[in-house]
Amino acid sequence: MLRGVLESLRSTRDIQAKTILHPHLSRKLSSDLQVPHNFEIPYLEIPWAQLAQSFDILWPIAPETDRILLDLVAQTRPLFGHVLAPGTDFIEMATDKKKTFKHFKKHGIPTPETLSPGQIPESDLSTPWVLKRRDGAGSQDMRILASAAEASHLNPNEWILQPLFSGKPVSQAILGGRNGCWYCPPCFQTISNDGAFTYEGGETPIPPDLAGRTRILAEKLVATLPHWTGWIGFDMILGDNAQDDRILEINPRLTTSFIGLDQAAGGSLAATIFRLALGQETDPPQFSPKRVVFDASGKLIPS
Fold it and tell me: What tens digit of pLDDT does each residue of 127-154 get?
């Protein structure tokens, strides 16, 4: 994703990108990112106040697991004029899948039942359930359980269970700025069929009827959320009809679909996001109707 953002900005003359890399990423990526500046600073010991003096915008790209994204945004928001991320309350809700479920239920958003290990009714113990980390990012540690009893020994503060739903996995990305938000075209998600739900990539656009159903659900959820700047995404399951559609979770961060959507927008999506966040006059991104397919790393696949 970082490489995709930098590629999107490379041809934009009025925006200079600098990166602050986690040391592990720096060793792995600095040789081929070809960015003007790499800062190798011990993670979470970064002198943010000093760096904030030379940055107009900070875009945190980090997973929500183990509070990494939440702590990063909490540290930087008081210092930087613009941080492309939701507020900490928003991130905390979206990071914790139990809190996300409660938000959905409070506002009438269709979503699968979400329970902790040990809460499953006796009558449902033998039906398939999906096990997830409570703060997992992507498909981290997900798997299908033939019986909820298999999870009875797990810590309820770290794991959740949801009933298994069939349908078409779809993601919806939305750009937030000072004056509102813009909806990107939704993307199909390619998920492994081995029961581990491994994300294998995606494609865009999707058929208009399914895109319309996705937009209805997304608008309903956006109406319940506080204002944000930058990029957020929703993961959904579209069933056989609209009554079976469900929103699964909120991603309060950049997602892999950025790569395909940036390609569909002509390679200028990152700059558009910056200008939108700053409240500058800018046209909405124009997305090509041509099919774009990408793998789990964001690499484009010829179609």
Answer: 788 999 999 887 888 999 888 888 888 9
DSSP state of 115: B
Please give, one letter per residue, the 3-state secondary structure of 26-44.
HHHHHHHHCCCCEEECCCC
CA distance 142 to 249: 14
- Compute and round to an integer the Cα radius of gyration of the chain: 19
Angle at CA 196, nearest 5°, toward 195 and 201?
Answer: 110
pLDDT in tens, 36-56: 444 444 445 677 888 788 788
Each residue of 201-230: pLDDT tens digit?
Answer: 999 999 999 999 999 999 999 999 999 999
| 3-state SS class at 22 | coil
pTM to 2 decimals?
0.90
By percentage, how much of the chain surpasses pLDDT 70? 90
CATH number of 2-99+165-301: 3.30.470.20
> What whole-number distance in Å separates Cα of residue 223 and Cα of residue 124?
33
Q: Which region holds residue 118: left if phi is over 0, alpha if psi is between -120 and 50, else beta?
A: left
Give 281: exposed, middle or buried? Use CB within 10 Å, 0-12, 13-18, 19+. exposed
Q: How far apart are CA 186 and CA 16, in angstroms?
A: 29
Other CB atoms within a 10 A radius of the CB of residue 190 amount to 17
Q: Which two tokens stand for residue 49?
A: 């106040």
Question: Which stretches of the chain are assigned E, i.e. beta strand?
Answer: 19-21, 38-40, 57-58, 82-83, 129-133, 143-145, 159-163, 168-177, 180-183, 187-191, 199-204, 230-238, 246-251, 292-295, 300-301
